[in-house]
C-alpha cells in the first residue's frame, strides 16, 4: 500500500481499463493508494493488480491499470479496485476504458477522457471532458465546464461557472446554472432546473427542452420547435420592471417540446 507525504494538493493521473477507481479527498497531509484484485481467486485479476503501476514524483501521482489479458465485454465486472485517499483540491486527469470512477470530497480542476464507463464526482473546481460512450454525473462545479461527446448523458447538480456541452447522442440534466450555458445535441433532452443569471442556448434535433427561471429574475425568451409545442408559464411584460436580474433564453428543437417555467426551488 504506497503512501506519500503530500502536505498540499497534488496532481493525479489515472489511466485505467476494466477497473473500479475510488477517490476520497479530505484535509490530510499524505496520499495513500490501494490496489486490490476484485476476485483474489481469479488469476487474471491478480495479474492485473500486480502489473498496475503507481508512480509519484514532484507532487504528481500516476496510476496505470493495464487491460486484462482477455478483453471483458461491456457490463462485466472490473478486474481491479483502486482506492486513492488524497488532499482536498487535488487536480485530476483520468482516462477510462470500461471502467468506473467515484470521487468523494472536493477536487480541483478535472480532465476526463471517457472511452466507456461511468464517472461520479462530488465537488470539483473545473471540468474538461471528452466522452465516447459513458455516463457522467457531478454534484457541483465551481468554475467553467466544457464537455464534448458522442454518446452518454451528463448530469450536474450546480454549475457555478459557464458551461458548454456538445454531443451527438445524450442529454443534459442540470439542476442549477449560475453562469452561461450553451448545450447542443442531436438526440437528447436538455433541462435546466433553475437558471439564475446570464444566458442559456439550448439546441437539439430530437428531445424536449425544459428551463426553470429563478425567482426575482426576468427572462428574454426566443424559443421555437418545428413539430412540438412551445409553452412559457411566465407572465409576459414589456420590460424587466421590478426584477433585479435578467436572463436570456434561446431554445431550438425540431422534434421536441419546449417548456419554460418559474423555478420552484
UniProtKB/TrEMBL annotation:
Query: What is the name of the protein in this document?
Result: DUF4097 domain-containing protein
Domain of life where this protein originates: Bacteria
List, for all copies, the residue spans of the domain called DUF4097: 16-260
Q: Name one Pfam family in it.
A: DUF4097
Q: Which InterPro entries match?
A: Toastrack_DUF4097 (IPR025164)
